[in-house]
Design goal:
The chain is α+β, with helices and mostly antiparallel strands and about 180 residues long. It folds into two domains: about 90 residues, RimP-like superfamily, N-terminal (GMP Synthetase, Chain A, domain 3, 2-Layer Sandwich); about 70 residues, Ribosome maturation factor RimP, C-terminal domain (SH3 type barrels). Helices cover about 30% and strands about 30% of the residues. The chain is built from four helices and eight strands. The protein has a five-stranded antiparallel sheet with strand order 7-6-5-4-8. A three-stranded mixed sheet has the order 1-2-3. Helix 1 crosses helix 2. The chain is globular.
């Protein structure tokens, strides 16, 4: 599922220099805990910044509350020592959620068959936003997405953002994966 690699996945999703730097500091800490780093996002400015760290357990594609706490504590220590952020900030650690962002080539393999929304940096044949069923990804480069009438081949490196669409099929698959029913959630 989650793969370790030299490139940080959010880099392909237009991460800022600060987000890339934070990811390089945070990734080893998250992986030492047995998890995969999904993305790092910094919002706000100056002393009101928020650093959002999203990670998952590679086996479940989720992160429980206790795991979020463990990641938060470990990441806080590294950020306190390295001090990469000017001014005060708030650290938030979370699981990617059911209708998660798709940040890595592996995500398009793992979630093939599910519906997604994909937005490109530049229009492709006059269209910037696409919605359809993920068919997969070829060579970690070309995302295959089937829309209502046609199949689209989208370059992974041109993706501004991509996200799963919350559907009954996705909820059912997620519930089956963890053994819970919709009523138990």
């Amino acid at each position: 599922m989650g793969s370790k690699g030299p490139a940080f996945f959010v880099t392909e999703m237009k991460a800022t220099t600060l987000e890339q730097k934070l990811a390089s500091l945070i990734r080893p800490v998250v992986e030492d805990l047995g998890f995969s780093l999904c993305w790092v996002k910094v919002s706000g400015e100056g002393g009101g910044q928020t650093v959002q760290v999203t990670a998952e357990n590679p086996a479940t594609r989720r992160l429980g509350i206790d795991d979020c706490t463990a990641v938060s504590r470990a990441v806080s220590v590294v950020l306190d020592v390295e001090d990469p952020i000017n001014g005060a900030y708030m650290l938030e650690v979370s699981s990617p959620g059911i209708d998660r962002m798709l940040c890595r080539p592996q995500d398009y393999k793992d979630f093939a068959g599910f519906e997604a929304k994909v937005e490109l940096d530049s229009p492709l044949n006059g269209q910037r936003r696409f919605r359809g069923i993920i068919k997969g990804i070829e060579n970690d480069e070309d995302i295959l997405l089937t829309g209502d009438t046609e199949e689209h081949r989208l370059s992974f490196h041109d993706v501004r953002k991509a996200k799963l669409v919350l559907t009954d099929d996705l909820i059912k698959a997620t519930s089956q994966q963890d053994g819970t029913t919709k009523e138990e959630r």
